[in-house]
Amino acid sequence: MAKFLTQDQINEYKECFSLYDRQRRGKIEGRELITVMRCLGSSPTPSEVQRHLLIHTEAGGELDFSTFLSIMHRQLQQEAPQEEILEALTRADKEQRGFLLASELRAKLTGLGERLTHREVDELLQDAGVGSDGRVHCEQFAEAVTRTAAAKH
């Protein structure tokens, strides 16, 4: 698994895994999997977690760290945040222009779903390089957001 994950990722995963290894046996309970994965920035659905558990759980419903790394790698491969963001932006771009106005995007990001603060939106818009005309190009924004998120992890 080490060839697919960076040493920094492995260290971060180990630190979080250890927090849930309450008996210090190098294992976590299967029911903790979704929590640990979400703590690490992954977004598995309950059915995805169930599928991982069916494939990987030992008798007794526990997972060791090596198995956990395999699950995280598989989950990261199936999550495609850049594509998801681009798809959401494309749906918001009703006129299919390839861009949204910064004011439109700000209203959506601060008012819908998991709401961002104005400061968080400012940072995203700055990273995405909003044009002087106030346009946020969908593809550039999706790339910038995923690049920024990857740098933080």
Explain the overall architecture.
With 153 residues, the chain is mainly alpha-helical. Helix content is 61%, strand content 8%. The protein has 8 helices and 4 strands, in the order αβααβααβααβα. It has a two-stranded antiparallel sheet. The protein has a two-stranded antiparallel ribbon with strand order 3-4. Helix 5 packs antiparallel against helix 8 and helix 6 crosses helix 7. It starts with 6 loop residues before the first helix and ends with a helix. The mean pLDDT is 86.
Strand and helix layout:
Blueprint (H helix, E strand, L loop, with lengths): L6 H14 L6 E3 L3 H7 L6 H11 L5 E3 H14 L2 H12 L6 E3 H10 L6 H11 L6 E3 H15 L1
Antiparallel strand pairs: 1-2, 3-4
Helix pairs in contact: 5-8, 6-7, 7-8
Derived from helix and strand composition plus strand pairing, the structural class reads mainly alpha
Strand residue percentage: 5-15%
Gap from first CA to last CA: 18 Å
Q: What can be said about the biggest beta sheet?
A: 2 strands, antiparallel
Radius of gyration, rounded?
Answer: 19 Å
What spatial order of strands do you see in the largest sheet?
1-2
- Structure annotation, total helices: 8
Mean pLDDT: 86
Global geometry = elongated
Low-confidence stretches: none
Summed up, what is this model?
This protein is mostly helical and 153 residues long. The chain is built from eight helices and four strands, in the order αβααβααβααβα.
Q: Features of this protein?
A:
153 residues; mainly alpha; two-stranded antiparallel sheet; 61% helix
